[in-house]
Amino acid sequence: MAVTLSERAAQHVTSYLAKRGKGVGIRLGVRTTGCSGMAYKLEFADEAPEGDEVFTSHGVTVFVEPKSLDYIDGTELDYAREVLNEGFKFNNPNVKNECGCGESFNV
Amino acid sequence: MALLQIAEPGMSTAPHQHRLAVGIDLGTTNSLVATVRSGLAVVLDDEAGRSLLPSVVRYHANGDVNVGYAAQAAQNSDPHNAIASVKRFMGRGLADIDDIASLPYRFVDAPGMVQLRTAAGVKSPVEVSAEILKVLSRRAETALGGELVGAVITVPAYFDDAQRQATKDAAQLAGLNVLRLLNEPTAAAIAYGLDNASEGVYAVYDLGGGTFDISILKLSKGVFEVLATNGDSALGGDDFDQRVFCWIVEQGRFQPLSAGDMRLLLTKARDAKEALTEHTEVRVTAVLSTGEMMDATLTQADFNAMTASLVSKTLAPTRKALRDAGLAVDEVKGVVMVGGSTRMPCIRQAVADFFRQTPLTNLDPDKVVALGAAMQADVLAGNRAGDDWLLLDVIPLSLGLETMGGLTEKVIPRNTTIPTARAQEFTTFKDGQTAMSVQVLQGERELASDCRSLARFELRGIPPMVAGAARIRVTFQVDADGLLSVSAREQSSGVEASVQVKPSYGLGDDEITRMLKDAFTHAKDDMYARALNEQIVDAQGLIAATRAAMAEDAALLSADEIATIEASIAALEKLMAGPDVEANHHLAIKRGIEALNAATTEFAQRRMDQNVRRAMAGQKLETFG
């Protein structure tokens, strides 16, 4: 069981954390919402959340909410640039289908 | 799939509910848009990777509109329709623009704000600004992949209500929701994180392409207060280019230049100036259309020498701003550099020498205002935990109204943090008065005529009462953008009237500093003027009351007594009208009032007795009845 970051994503997270000046890593999770059932959560973590699964990928500490791990296990978080927009992208092998915009999904 | 940003802990948004917010620096020369991505403020570039959008709008006869570089390129070929620096006309009347003759635009004098005749019809500065905002808003929506919930737009600290309202109107026209207007120096300070810094005084030195502004800010409890602003609306990087241009012409011993050659040499001059930021000398070569040539080397030392007077021209307003704020140089805790021209080493050195400390320069001076605005927008859109910061601004000039005798009654003093609301009770001056005119004023002076009138409205339908019995509550409310609404309500009848201040024309920064300065220099005159006017109001009231009493109860007076009272009234009236040369004229009027009071004491006594007798007579009837 693991969640990883692409090298590019890790670089961005590291620099965001450095410029933010605080935080021990990032925290991923899902919640039941949105048009296709679930949506990702992607947040900074200011302290290690109790009970979270902890992974390290390219030097970045990644916390995953224990209840969410089943849904995103095997995910690689990537950083992508699309025309003018840029941001993080979940490459999640568990997804069966997602809504048109890709902001919510189900497994 | 959609691209996500990292949110603050616990602040993840639901799908399709990202609170996308931007900060916009709507500049005189260039404009920018910035946002906060994964906790970090960034400026958004256009498709060509350029972050600056020249604040130039060109109108075509077929209704097409160009904004930015294309419009800028057409400034020479189509001067009437390619509008630059429209910010200077926002909220201004024709009379407020002093260099109208040197501008190529076809101005139309309109009530309130000047308008411009273009190939696409008459356009107001608000419409022109809206075109710039539309482009930035579209750029942001493409870059962020969603609709914006709102924007924070920056304005100079000296912008008055008319100019702020015009900016808000432009945003509305562009379909932007304005979260807040933010003062430019405050935005720069936020970008440097000074709002999280310890309390203290900070200076923001802003030297742009064509304008110079210095602001002294005081940070206390997370609130930035603008202590003083000063500047020069006709001093900027362009003037430095001009000096280098003259040097080039001198070096090449060029004859009078064609327009094309002049533009070429100006570009060379600017390139040379920019090169000297990084290098100690630069080789300048040019070939004119006439075949004339020049090839010379400009050293940083030469450049510094030829622009030294420009540099010192920025220090004079800086000194003044500090003096207005009542501060010494060593009380300034930090200096923020804003504007592309602050890249020049000579400017940095001069500022460092002046403030005896190294100014903050690690953020791009062209972007710092937009970045600060983006950070504020992020907070206002609700993307950060609430305890982070709630930033407030202050009003630059006191707001009040005119009372009897042409005096200013300040309702909200300057430097009050906004949003704010204050109420004060006023009353009627004459018996049976059924209407009251409320003149809304802005300024620090004691006499209404020395302050700026923002609006006037009338409260009608006050029930007739004796003078002083009506209770009229006047409420001044300033919203988070510094815009004012005033309402008046008569408490017993509930009649109400109000006004939203969209003042008809604006004040310049020079004027605002002048108004502030005048308030200091004229403090003594003002005090005297107030004392004089107060005495005149008292005298008028007393004369009116005496006349009313005499009309009612003339029977109580002998012809002699009437003559004495009339004489006292005449004497007092003469004093009121009398020349206002003597410094203590108000004391003379006061003595006149005392004389009239003395002359009518006996009369007042008799009226009192008569009323008592009448009352007792009534009592008797009742008792026996």
Give structural attributes.
heterodimer, A: alpha+beta, Hypothetical Protein Aq_1857, Chain: A, 2 helices, 17% helix, B: alpha+beta, four-stranded mixed sheet, elongated
Describe this structure in words.
With 107 residues, chain A is an alpha+beta fold. Chain A has one domain (4-95): HesB-like domain (Hypothetical Protein Aq_1857, Chain: A, Sandwich), CATH 2.60.300. Helix content of chain A is 17%, strand content 44%. In chain A, β8 (97-98) and β9 form a beta hairpin. The model of chain A has no long low-confidence stretch (mean pLDDT 83). In chain B, the strands form 8 sheets. In chain B, strands 1, 2, 3, 4, 11 and 12 form a 6-stranded mixed β-sheet that branches. Chain B has a 4-stranded mixed β-sheet with strand order 15-14-13-18, with helices on both faces. The longest helix of chain B is centred in the C-terminal third of the chain and has 40 residues, at 585-624. Chain B is elongated, with a radius of gyration of 31 Å. Chains A and B meet through α1, β2, β3 and β7 of A and α2 of B.
Explain the layout of strands and helices.
The complex is a heterodimer of chains A (107) and B (625).
Chain A (H helix, E strand, L loop, with lengths): L3 E2 L1 H14 L4 E8 L5 E8 L7 E5 L2 E5 L4 H4 L3 E7 L2 E7 L5 E2 L5 E3 L1
Parallel strand pairs in A: 1-6, 2-5
Antiparallel strand pairs in A: 2-3, 3-9, 4-5, 6-7, 8-9
Chain B lengths: L20 E6 L3 E8 L2 E4 L9 E2 L1 E4 L5 E3 L1 H5 L8 E3 L21 E3 L6 E4 L2 E3 L1 H20 L5 E6 L5 H13 L4 E6 H8 L8 E8 L4 E9 L2 E10 L4 H16 L6 H20 L2 E7 L5 E7 H25 L7 E7 L6 H11 L12 H13 L12 E2 L4 E5 L3 E6 L4 E2 L1 E7 L8 E8 L9 E9 L11 E7 L5 E7 L5 E5 L8 H13 L1 H31 L5 H19 L7 H40 L1
Parallel strand pairs in B: 1-11, 11-12, 13-18
Antiparallel strand pairs in B: 1-2, 2-3, 2-4, 5-6, 5-7, 8-9, 9-10, 13-14, 14-15, 16-17, 19-22, 20-21, 20-24, 23-26, 24-25, 26-27, 27-28
